[in-house]
Specification:
- The protein is α/β, with parallel strands linked by helices and 385 residues long.
- The chain is 53% helix and 9% strand.
- The strands form 2 sheets. The protein has a 5-stranded mixed β-sheet with strand order 1-7-3-4-2. The chain has a two-stranded antiparallel ribbon with strand order 5-6.
- β3 and β4 form a beta hairpin.
- α7 crosses α8 and α10 packs across α13.
- The two termini are 40 Å apart.
- The N terminus is likely disordered.
Amino acid sequence: MILERIKFEEILKEEVVEKDVINIDRYDIEVSLIQPPIFSVYEELKRGSIYIPRFQRLYRWDINRASRLIETILLGLPMPPIYVYLDKDNRKVVIDGQQRLLTIYFFKEGKIPKSKKYININNIGELSELMKRKPENFQDFKLVNVKEEWEDKSYNDLKESDRNWFDFNYSIWITKLTQNKPQEDDISSAFYIFERLNTGGELLTNMELRRALYYGNGNFVSLLEEVNEKKEWRKILGKDLDPKLLDVEILLRILYLSHNWRNFREPMKERLNNFMKQNMSLDKTKKVELEKLLKKLIELTYKSLGNKPFHQFKNKFNIKILDSFMALALLYIEKLDEGKLKLIYKKAIKDEVFREIIDNTRISTDEKWLKERFEYLDKIFREHI
């Protein structure tokens, strides 16, 4: 089962990959360096002026790795700089260094998440409440495998001189980035900065980055994630939830392409970024409407086609068939029933021209081939609705 999941993830990554094009000549990014003491950073984290974006899995370090960072600080050794992005609300949004900042916060609080306990929160304030509400998910933060004088010590157990060193004498280098140009889009560079500067052991996918940067009021993100958990959708994909949100990206793609395939322009990454940004303030009424449509699409697709219908070519998942078929089915959803959808599917799968278009498409988001497969499949849809 584990091997199957890994294979599926590799296929998804391969299919979702595209030409990396940025449609901006040059960014104007102002870079400044600050060196605040740990106490100031801790206070800014609590206030939210240093803001850690909302990721699905917030903290990944175990007690050994966390202890090593604290020992590094107590020894007076430098740690890599933290990168932050100054947003329109003058918050310092953390680009790189999330795990280090959280480790410092946890040490000051005296608690750390238990191994493999992932936390899903909006801000540090919620984290503080969570520690009180769900103490079973946390353990005492006592240093392990460190210098003998600090072994098995919490922050409060340290000598006063060590606490003073930790709080006021050790400074953290923070690189602060501000986008001056293009002014009409004050967040686009943040996506590319995240993507290129993230140095964590497990690099974030495009969808994880979108989730952080374009979370907004949360309605659009929760819509995608709730639909993604539907059992019929899991059976269509043929796999469990993807930890890197690649399955959520497919849902996003279906929604975007259903009304935008005719005027699609590369790169897909940028189009999906903009689509997420446009929906950052999605109201609850619109969320309910979209959720009903997506669920109706998924239920109809599953009832009509059954398990793993998009594994037809070479017996593996094919995003090129799925995105075109389901995006167009969503577009024409009010005119479809099980019989019509099943007929359209059989016609398309057996159609030699359509199969040739699919076979000739190396990258699923190539503009020419994407429009060609959508145009051809659209004709089949319109002939049978």
